Amino acid sequence: MGLTSAASVPGGVLAIDAGNSKTDVAVVAADGTVLGTARGGGFQPPVVGTEEAVAGLVPLVAEAARQAGAAPGAAPLASYVSACLANADFPVEEERLQAALHAHGWGERTHVANDTFAILRAGVDEPRGVAVVCGAGINCAGLLPDGRTARFPAIGRISGDWGGGGFLAEEALWHAARAEDGRGEPSALATALPAHFGLGSMAELIEALHLGPVPADRKHELAPVLFRVAAAGDAVATRIVERQAAEVAVMAEVTLDRLGLLDEEAVVVLGGGVLAARHPQLMDALHRRLSVTAPKAVTRVVTAPPVLGAALLGLDQLAAPPAAHARVRAHYAADAPARTEGGPSRAPAS
């Protein structure tokens, strides 16, 4: 679906979804029409600082505004800035980022939330449900129509997290190294992981990772190898996959419970590369667990871009009519695969 230009930008929302690897911006009219978009690189305040990270959004906002027909430097661009940002993990970080964004004058009101909320809102028909995101790392958030939320710090092992693609790769390497040198249980991971890089042993792979012939940032390639080895019946790999399923499930269960949804029908949105891949063993183990602990939960794998969720959150705040929500969804549906719904009962795709 193409963009619609306008001589002047009406009320509406400036939606920003800024993740670790990419950033999407959209200017959305109050009726849900997408007027302009832009995409850029990752958003990493812990690396470059809050001000510099926010400054990196300026050219993207300018491009989206240009497409929308706004005059150069025009402000405000929208009634509401809805920014769902990676690394907004604590209230103090949200406050700093919100102040930095609002200082640019892009909207009459500005709100910052963790980027997990964008994935959640993109996957539900109303602001009610839970999302578990398992990509490079793992995170979870829940939302109710009255504005109440539940979430985790989700900054790694020090906040109690287990899983995500990067973590799974490290776990697979650990078990593979011990399988080869005799300290651990035998596993096909010991040959499959080095073979992925054209190497003959874990000893070679360990040396290559340590000295640099295989860059450390390529370790994430090993998560899909782990799932393939598990699918072939390897006991060690299977336990890792089942542990990941249990971690996804327990985050969803706790969040549903915090919001009073554990015994009600509610959507659990699944996002991020690990879950979007729909590995059968992972999904089966997840649904088995939820069928016992949250039997009324319905899982939904979301494929729409998270910036859609940021836009919908903004339209929620503007009390936009259902037609506006449908219009912005239709815009992004043109570029996204159909979502899959399921759950403990393994409901068919819709």
From TrEMBL:
- InterPro entries for the chain: ATPase_BadF, ATPase_NBD, Euk-type_GlcNAc_Kinase
Alphabetically ordered keywords of this record: Kinase, Transferase
Q: Which residues form the ATPase BadF/BadG/BcrA/BcrD type domain?
A: 16-314
A GO molecular function term, named singly, is: kinase activity
Origin, by domain of life? Bacteria
Tell me the Pfam families matching this sequence.
BcrAD_BadFG
Q: Name the PANTHER family on file.
A: N-ACETYL-D-GLUCOSAMINE KINASE
Instruction: State the name under which the record lists this protein.
Output: Kinase
